Structures are given as structure tokens and as C-alpha cells.
Amino acid sequence: MNYTSVGTLWEVLSEVAWRIQQQTNRQIQIAWTDDFGSVYVADAAAAPDVPSEQFVGAYTRITSIDDIIDDLRATMRERAGGAIASTGA
Predict the structure, then answer these.
(1) What is the pLDDT of residues 79-89, one digit of tens each?
(2) pTM higher than 0.85
(3) What is the pLDDT of residues 3-59, one digit of tens each?
(4) Where are the chain's structural domains?
């Protein structure tokens, strides 16, 4: 299986989002987390089957870092079971 670890959910999310964006190329990449909050990226065609609760998003080179950050925040909120209050940001 060919995938890359790009960080964790407890790191600065803009840095993790930048790493995700750097992994993208002409093909669609997907990002997902494991049970420990590590974030991984792989080609959509070669990625493992990822449970929906671990799926972060699918990205191309033109996906903005802000969109990726929003997806990472949403993943954190879902994992926290609503314990993280939305700031509207």
C-alpha cells in the first residue's frame, strides 16, 4: 500500500493542510485519519478502503489550503463528538 503520513490532528492545521496540498498532483488524492489522529494521504486509485468516520476529504492541486483546513476542523469536531464548539471561522 502506498500512502504518506502528513501529520496529526493535534498539530497546527495549516501546516498539515499544506503538507496534504504538497502531496497532490494531477490525480485526486484522499486524506484520512487513523484511530490515533494521524493524517494520511494517498492516490484515490491506490488508497485503502477508509471508513467514512475516518475520511477527511478528496483533493487536487487546486484545492485551497483553507478548504483543507475546514475539512480537518470538521474531522476534529466529529471525532470529539460535538465537544468542540464551532467558532464560526
Answers:
(1) 887 555 555 55
(2) no
(3) 889 999 999 999 999 999 998 877 889 999 998 999 999 988 877 788 888 999 999
(4) 4-79
The residue type of 18 is W
DSSP the chain: ---EEEEETTS-HHHHHHHHHHH--SS-EEEEE-TTSEEEEEETTTPPP--TTTEEEEE-TTS-HHHHHHHHHHHHHHHTTT-SPP---
Contact 84, 76 (CB under 8 A): yes
Q: Is 59 exposed, middle or buried (0-12, 13-18, 19+ CB in 10 A)?
A: buried
Main-chain phi, psi angles of 57, to 5 degrees: 175, 175
